[in-house]
Design a protein that fits this description.
This protein is mainly α. 39% of the residues lie in helices and 4% in strands. Strands 1-2 form a two-stranded parallel sheet. Helix 1 crosses helix 3 and helix 2 crosses helix 3. The longest helix has 12 residues. The protein is globular. The structure holds a DNA duplex.
Length: 105
DNA sequence: AGGTTGACTCACC
DNA sequence: TGGTGAGCCAACC
């Protein structure tokens, strides 16, 4: 288990986020079995190569705040029908583990 | 080796 | 709701 594999797992999981659904770094880390590595999830996404076409705009922090340095992220999510509250954060009701309903595959 | 930083999270207040 | 401090772990001087 090296760091490259961890990133690989992150990419694999992020790629499965359904349209219009949002999750958090900590949740991803949790599903991967590394609840302490939420920050590494962020780093992995930060370093994610663009050719992977990851929907990393669907990943926010636990308070629903979007990634810094990336103003367009909000617009991308709104295009998918993700509801934002008056604080400019993602509504918490779309932040949840979606792995269950995906498990048929 | 030691200090700082960060696309994080939680407990407290 | 929001600020702060403390854990946390990997990356970068």
């Amino acid at each position: 288990m090296n760091n490259n594999e961890f990133s690989q797992m992150v990419y694999n999981l992020v790629a499965k986020i359904p349209y219009g659904r949002v999750t958090t770094y900590g949740l991803i880390a949790l599903m991967l079995g590394f609840p302490q590595n939420a920050r590494q999830v962020g780093q992995a996404l930060h370093n994610a190569p663009q050719y992977l076409d990851l929907p990393c705009h669907r990943v926010v922090n636990h308070s629903g705040k979007l990634a810094p340095f990336w103003p367009e992220q909000r617009q991308l999510l709104e295009n998918e029908g993700v509801h934002f509250n008056s604080f400019g954060n993602v509504d918490m009701n779309v932040i949840m583990p979606w792995i269950q309903q995906n498990s048929t595959q």
